[in-house]
């Protein structure tokens, strides 16, 4: 039995690789800087040996191959040991291609926003249609027991990230996936730590487009100029579009997006009534429906599946309600994602106000935590992103290289900046009133602010 050791095993992607390798019959172990749940619990239940801290002694003598995560860099003692001893190593995406994806019908979901949610929707639709897909999703899909599985049929759904593959392979992860069905949700500048500008990102996406076969399908919104420019660089595959009279369209029945009609080629396909809100989730749903149709799932079946879809954790997830004050957790860490999340919340709050069900404020709470956000690249777009909030609270973390207080004068609504999470919690709790909606946005743990807020309320 071949022994694989994974560096950076507790990330959702690398943890998914570990789970799939175990299902394939490999002996699997792994190391991370900190071994933490829920991924650690998930892996331990699979019988995978985990070690905390990057130490050479964690690498057993019988290891045949080391899979190195993209968080690893030169100077890491285990990386240096692998290189010095000439131990075979590979990136996670390359291993996945060679061991799983090369013989599968890959449905890849790419884009700046919505990858995790759309991938989860798509995997669920295929599961509902009894196609038992494999999948690897960079989040916790709540319709399944884990974030990854091998699957029993040719179909494999993967969240196709444009981030780089490893310190020794700076190509985007997704160039290793060779999709037959490719979703491109949207395209904006992000990941300023590895991309110089939008054209850098478009170049990587065009590498991906080149790999889709001529009888494959690329699905994208007609309204996204950056995607249009990228497709104009050359496309050799079949195409379908959303936001297009001759393609996929949605017509909202309710302002918050909890009910909408689906149309394709001008013909009504059915109505989705579900627990999710926001135009961005409608867009995600159209992409998932279209991709599933390419894999053979009738549109009516996909529409039937969506009301049973449970949104991915940390995607506008209700963490609790105290004194009629709702506290949501959302992964939004880009101005566009922040704007779309708050627009969806605002639509629901306005509906409730109109019906006199609730009369509350929308309170936005942000931790600028992504590498791009911490560097200040998106700071000028942030004030406009908060347009649908009544109050804004921002955490000035130690790693943020710019003064968040600059936003106070640029925001159209009251904006508070704090350098201590506990102080931030106190100020929010003092300001919140019954029927308010608090939306906490971060791509990290935000020092447990959700539980602290609920306790303070």
Automatic annotation (TrEMBL):
Domain Mur ligase N-terminal catalytic: 3-98
InterPro entries: Mpl (IPR005757), Mur-like_cat_sf (IPR036565), Mur_ligase_C (IPR004101), Mur_ligase_C_dom_sf (IPR036615), Mur_ligase_cen (IPR013221), Mur_ligase_N (IPR000713), MurCDEF_pg_biosynth (IPR050061)
SUPFAM superfamilies, per the entry: MurCD N-terminal domain, MurD-like peptide ligases, catalytic domain, MurD-like peptide ligases, peptide-binding domain
Positions of ATP binding: 111-117
Origin superkingdom: Bacteria
Catalytic activity, EC: 6.3.2.45
Biological process per Gene Ontology, one example term: peptidoglycan biosynthetic process
All residue ranges annotated as the Mur ligase C-terminal domain in the record: 314-444
Catalytic activity: UDP-N-acetyl-alpha-D-muramate + L-alanyl-gamma-D-glutamyl-meso-2,6-diaminopimelate + ATP = UDP-N-acetyl-alpha-D-muramoyl-L-alanyl-gamma-D-glutamyl-meso-2,6-diaminopimelate + ADP + phosphate + H(+)
GO MF terms, alphabetically ordered: ATP binding; UDP-N-acetylmuramate-L-alanyl-gamma-D-glutamyl-meso-2,6-diaminoheptanedioate ligase activity
Keywords: ATP-binding, Cell cycle, Cell division, Cell shape, Cell wall biogenesis/degradation, Ligase, Magnesium, Nucleotide-binding, Peptidoglycan synthesis
Mur ligase central domain span: 109-292
Associated pathway: Cell wall biogenesis; peptidoglycan recycling
Similarity remark: Belongs to the MurCDEF family. Mpl subfamily.
PANTHER family: UDP-N-ACETYLMURAMATE--L-ALANINE LIGASE-RELATED, UDP-N-ACETYLMURAMATE--L-ALANYL-GAMMA-D-GLUTAMYL-MESO-2,6-DIAMINOHEPTANDIOATE LIGASE
HAMAP family per UniProt: Mpl
Protein name from the UniProt record: UDP-N-acetylmuramate--L-alanyl-gamma-D-glutamyl-meso-2,6-diaminoheptandioate ligase
Biological source species: Litorilituus sediminis
Lineage, opening ranks: Bacteria, Pseudomonadati, Pseudomonadota, Gammaproteobacteria, Alteromonadales
Underlying gene: mpl
């Amino acid at each position: 039995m071949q022994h694989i050791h994974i560096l950076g095993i507790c990330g959702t992607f690398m943890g998914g690789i570990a789970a799939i390798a175990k299902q394939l019959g490999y002996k699997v172990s792994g190391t991370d800087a900190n071994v933490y749940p829920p991924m650690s619990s998930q892996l331990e239940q699979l019988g995978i040996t985990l070690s905390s801290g990057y130490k050479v002694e964690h690498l057993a003598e019988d290891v045949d191959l080391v899979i190195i995560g993209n968080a690893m860099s030169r100077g890491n003692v285990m990386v240096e040991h692998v290189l010095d001893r000439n131990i075979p190593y590979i990136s996670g995406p390359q291993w996945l291609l060679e061991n799983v994806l090369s013989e599968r019908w890959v449905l890849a979901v790419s884009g700046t926003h919505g990858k995790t949610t759309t991938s989860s929707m798509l995997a669920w639709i295929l599961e509902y249609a009894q196609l038992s897909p494999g999948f690897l999703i960079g989040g916790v899909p709540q319709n399944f027991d884990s974030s990854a599985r091998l699957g029993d049929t040719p179909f494999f759904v993967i969240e196709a990230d444009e981030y780089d593959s490893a310190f020794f392979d700076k190509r985007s992860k997704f160039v290793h996936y060779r999709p037959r069905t490719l979703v491109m949700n949207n395209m904006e500048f992000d990941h300023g730590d590895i991309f110089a500008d939008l054209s850098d990102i478009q170049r990587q996406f065009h590498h991906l487009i080149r790999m889709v076969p001529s009888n494959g399908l690329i699905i994208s919104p007609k309204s996204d100029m950056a995607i249009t420019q990228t497709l104009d660089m050359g496309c050799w595959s079949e195409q379908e579009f959303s936001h297009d009279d001759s393609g996929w369209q949605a017509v909202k029945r309710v302002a918050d997006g909890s009910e909408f009609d689906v149309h394709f080629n001008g013909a009504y396909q059915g109505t989705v009534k579900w627990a999710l809100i926001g135009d961005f989730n409608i867009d995600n749903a159209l992409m998932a429906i279209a991709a599933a149709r390419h894999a053979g799932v009738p549109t009516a079946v996909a529409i039937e599946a969506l009301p049973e879809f449970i949104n991915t954790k940390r995607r506008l997830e209700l963490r609790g309600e105290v004194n009629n004050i709702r506290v949501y957790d959302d992964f939004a860490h880009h101005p566009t994602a922040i704007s779309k999340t708050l627009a969806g919340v605002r639509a629901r709050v306005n509906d409730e106000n109109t019906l006199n069900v609730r009369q509350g404020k929308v309170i936005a709470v942000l931790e600028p935590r992504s590498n791009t956000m911490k560097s200040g690249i998106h700071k000028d777009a942030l004030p406009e992103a908060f347009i649908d909030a009544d109050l804004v609270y921002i955490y000035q973390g130690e790693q943020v290289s710019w003064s968040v207080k600059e936003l106070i004068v640029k925001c159209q609504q009251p904006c508070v900046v704090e350098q201590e999470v506990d102080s931030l919690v106190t100020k929010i709790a003092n300001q919140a009133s019954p029927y308010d909606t608090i939306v906490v946005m971060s791509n990290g743990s935000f020092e447990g602010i959700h539980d602290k807020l609920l306790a303070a309320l």
